[in-house]
From TrEMBL:
This is Carboxylic acid reductase. Its EC number is 1.2.1.-. The keyword Flavoprotein does not apply. The gene is car. The keyword Transferase does not apply. One of its GO terms (molecular function) is ATP binding. It comes from the Bacteria. Keywords: ATP-binding, Nucleotide-binding, Oxidoreductase. GO terms for cellular component: membrane.
Length: 281
């Protein structure tokens, strides 16, 4: 089985494995890679031996990958016969998309599964353009943090947007999985989304998520202090999500700037779930 266009969370992967074993008596091998429309489309592929959530593997035959230091990350750039020569009648865009050696700049970061064994392949390490600095100068790596929150919040977290640019701490906007939250709340299908998210079982679930994330954090870049549950899903017409379901972090932060401000209010409203010291409330 091959999947593309977006990452597959490990908890969903595990559930597919469980269903395959239940139905067929064995797992079904799943593969993915890394690429873009401009690379026709995959430039890297994972092996069955290393295949798991986040692994993008090694360069495809004939493709050369260059890893360029970018802050604390390695930016992935590719060259090969499958990479487009440029954008039709857009020389300025083409020039910005390739480096001086003719490598196409994907805008993605990767890291080795094991630096001591590079032949095992690489993992996706987020989008370079999504990362930001706190006002302390500390870099926040959005991709890995987002994946960790979705995994820790499964099955009640559908997606998450990371806030904190030029702020003193990280906060998040959560797009909940409404059917799962409705089930947790014990409310009928007729209940409004806002009522579901305000219910005590749902609030306690996400407060516990903040506690769990805090217990595993290694510093300010991975410690989430506040969160807000969004009753309104990502809007395609506002470019908050693609037709494939991928979240546009920047668009959500811009379109919902008032909610971001609410996350950082001195006296936050009851809609804001917050971690004070080691206590979430």
């Amino acid at each position: 089985m091959f999947f593309a266009a977006a990452g597959l969370s490990q908890h969903i992967w595990d559930e597919l494995d469980r269903l395959a074993i239940q139905t067929l008596g064995c797992k079904v091998g799943m593969l993915t890679g890394l690429g873009a429309t401009e690379t026709a489309p995959s430039a890297m592929f994972a092996s069955l031996e290393e295949s798991q959530s986040g692994v993008v593997g090694l360069p495809a035959r004939g493709v050369t990958v260059k890893l360029v230091p970018n802050g604390s990350k390695l930016e992935c750039r590719v060259k090969g016969p499958s990479v487009m020569p440029g954008y039709w009648r857009q020389p300025e865009v083409t020039a910005r998309s390739f480096d001086d050696e003719g490598f196409y700049c994907l805008g993605d970061a990767v890291k080795f599964i094991d630096p001591a064994e590079p032949q095992r392949g690489m993992r996706f390490d987020g989008r370079i353009s999504e990362d930001f600095k706190l006002d302390t100068g500390t870099w926040v790596s959005v991709g890995p943090l987002r994946a960790r929150i979705i995994e820790a919040g499964a099955p009640h977290v559908k997606d998450v947007v990371i806030a904190g640019l030029d702020r003193s701490y990280v906060s998040i906007l959560i797009f909940p999985d409404m059917p799962k939250c409705r089930e947790l709340a014990g409310l009928g299908n007729g209940a409004e989304n806002a009522a579901v998210l305000a219910s005590e079982p749902v609030r306690e679930r996400f407060l516990q998520l903040l506690r769990d994330l805090d217990s595993e954090s290694t510093g300010s870049a991975s410690r989430v202090r506040r969160a807000m549950l969004l009753a309104e899903p990502p809007r395609l017409d506002a470019n908050e999500a693609t037709d494939k379901g991928s979240i546009n972090q920047r668009a959500v932060l811009e379109n919902r700037a008032d909610l971001v401000d609410a996350l950082y209010a001195v006296e936050p409203s009851e809609d804001v779930l917050r971690l004070d010291g080691n206590q979430a409330r």
